Amino acid sequence: MTLPNLPMELQDEIFRLAAWESPVTANILLQVSKWVSHRIEPILYEIIVIQQTKDASKCFYPPHIERLSSKVLDLFEQHGNYMRCLWIEPIHPEQDVASALKLCTSLKNLAFPSTCSTEMLEIIQEYPPQLERLSGMFSMCRELFDALKPAYRLLTHLDFIGIHRWNASSTFLTGLPSLTHLAVDDMSDGDDVVVGALKGCQKLQAMLLVGDDEDMAKPCEETSRVAEYSDERIVRVIVSPFNNWWAGVHGGVDMWKFADELISERRRRREELPMKPRP
Question: Which residue of 61, 96, 213, 249 is surrounded by the most CB atoms within 10 Å?
């Protein structure tokens, strides 16, 4: 039996859909032949989720990796070089997380939905400078972030949900040369961060003030609260953190894309307003 002469992109999508449909199918595909295994591995391990459920058990995506649930490091040792997008919740002991992250040599999108320790940020500092999107809960001093700044020179999207506030004059945010999108908690005590980022981040295109609702079905939606700032780059949203991240890594409408579309619509409406005659 021979495969139809399909474009490689279509073959990859067929393999992806088949493998993600069932853990059994994924394991079968990996054993069909070396050619199929080599084709499917980079696809299968591109997006990885290790999630803590409400009953404190672990949930894994793609589903077939659950068989490695007691050997998380094995998963990263074997496939870490394929990982591009990673959502990782607490693993104990913590040094296992650090060891696992060191093996993700091609990671572009990293999400820590629970508090990120100083050790974790120090591990990120050791990456090749490749991270483009980072989100998580952070609670450490300004000096540490400033020290880690060189590791984030390619960072375009930064989600600081849960961060302890610092003075907006911090050189960390204003020193990120590629930052275009920033999200912080929708809290009144974040005013200094908002104003400082809008003034100091030269490439900033969208500033999101975020509330979260884990039980919300949609990835994100705009809140009804009126913005306290006049800058059209500010967008207030409520997000379901995991659903939002999941939509984004699969090309759907996450909070970043939602904000971009809303800001574009605001600008279009502004440009359509009739010009006021000069006095």
Answer: 249
Of 245, 14, 223, 18, nearest in space to 134 by CA: 245
> Strand pairing partners for 181?
157, 206
The C-alpha angle 34, 40, 46, rounded to 5 degrees, equals 140
| Burial (CB count within 10 angstroms: exposed 0-12, middle 13-18, buried 19+), residue 112 | buried
pLDDT in tens, 177-199: 899 999 988 765 456 778 888 88
Which two structure tokens, joined as six digits, stand for 220? 């994100």
CB-count exposure of residue 183 (10 Å: 0-12, 13-18, 19+) = buried
**What is the reported pTM?**
0.80
Q: Average model confidence (pLDDT) for the chain?
A: 75
Measured CA to CA, the distance from residue 99 to residue 79 in angstroms comes to 14
Angle between helices 255-272 and 241-249 (to 10 degrees): 80
Residue 6 φ then ψ, to 5°? -95, 155
Its sign, for the CA torsion 259, 110, 174, 185, is: positive
Helical (H) or strand (E) element with 102: helix 94-102
> Which single residue is written with the structure tokens 């908690």?
185
Token output for 210? 């975020």
As beta bridge partners, residue 50 has 60, 88
Compute how many other C-beta atoms are within 10 angstroms of the C-beta atom of residue 19: 22
Q: What tens digit of pLDDT does each residue of 86-99 get?
A: 988 766 555 667 77
Distance between CA atoms of residues 38 and 241, nearest Å: 33
